[in-house]
Amino acid sequence: MNSRIDDYTGIAIDVLHGSGWRVIVHPDDQQETEARWLRSVETGEPYEREQRLRRKDGAWRWHLSRAVLIHGPDGAPHRWIGTNTDIDDQKRVEQALRDSELRLRLSQEAAGIASLEVDITAGEVFGSDTLWQLWGLPPARSVPTSVLEAMVVPEDRSLRSCEASRRDGSAARSVEYRIRRADTGEERWMARHVEFVRDDAGRPVKMFGVMRDVTEAKQSEFRQQILTHELAHRIKNILATVSAIAAQTLRDTDLASARTAFDARLQALGRGHDILNAARWTAASLAGVVEAALDPFPRERITVTGPDVALGPRRALTLALAVNELGTNALKYGALAVDGGRVAVHWRIETTDGAPRLIWSWTETGGPAVAPPERRGFGRFLIERVLAADFGGSVGIEFPSGGVRCLLTAPWPATAKPAEEADSKGKMGG
Fold this sequence. Notes:
The protein is α+β, with helices and mostly antiparallel strands and 430 residues long. The protein has 3 domains: 3-86, Beta-Lactamase (2-Layer Sandwich), CATH 3.30.450.20; 93-213, PAS domain (Beta-Lactamase, 2-Layer Sandwich); 219-429, Heat Shock Protein 90. The chain contains 13 helices and 16 strands. It has a 6-stranded antiparallel sheet, sandwiched between helices. The protein has a 5-stranded mixed sheet with strand order 11-13-14-16-15, with helices on one face. A 3-stranded antiparallel sheet has the order 1-2-3, sandwiched between helices. The radius of gyration is 43 Å and the shape is elongated.
């Protein structure tokens, strides 16, 4: 042993002869170290072992121990010559690198991110396991770039890199394009970001990058655009409706009466919106619309009957406003203005000559004698014109002495859609 042993361990060399070496080898490494050494002595094979040796300050540091057998002139084993090399710093760096790679792999997998490396000269793509999963390919060490290029949908092939753009380094660093998975044929959106590695002459030799599936994000973005358009569309419709209500309410009436009527109509419109919001603006129950519109009136004197029928948003709002007008008129001048008066709201689906129709009626009984009004106000205009148009049918209002009767007759299922609804649904579907 040379003096370096003494310098490193702080133990006299003569103490380490024979089995004395055990005092500087980590207890967990002693058994395997001895077994390896005895096997080399028995077979003459070179000895190599990584083990921890104690430094004189008590620190355990990794060493690479190597020894070879020297033979004498007669070929007989003569002596072993060996070295101990401190590799502790190297081991720590290697472990830190492994830990870093593990953290990177776990974070990429958690985020659905795949890594890739393109050998530009060889035209090969090397990737992580996640890369092959994203593209629906079986696990592989690498695939030709042409395999992935062919899976990009034709409309987006100008976005991906190609052999020429990789060789001259002009490929876009960040792009999004669609592919068709190899296993299912499903169309998926991919987001890809790359960097080039260049040689001393500045020519690209490798392309490193990451990729992830952003299909859900793209679909969410598309849905958000549709919802934003739909919201703007609905707001315009609401403002147009409110504007029409205001204009008709304020026409030829005093301000106090107009304020009361306008407030009631806005509340009816709001109740209709509540019903549609609960149904996510898809379809509202006809019964629910009528019940909500009748909420401010004496319900104990109003009966509501009819089958389960669904209405689109426009028809639901118009019907809510019409019921409010009929209820307000009945409360002021009709059946609900006296104790004995009653109102019956009923609807049914009736088939005549093979054509189904919706028959909806409002019938007042037990009220004061009524007569046709001298002028047509907003309520009558809304019921006879707007309600009929939105349902694609006809509306008649009668004034028999027993009470007002309103009858709506319309094709069912509805065949004529209001322009606003038809336009909105068409864009949602597209």
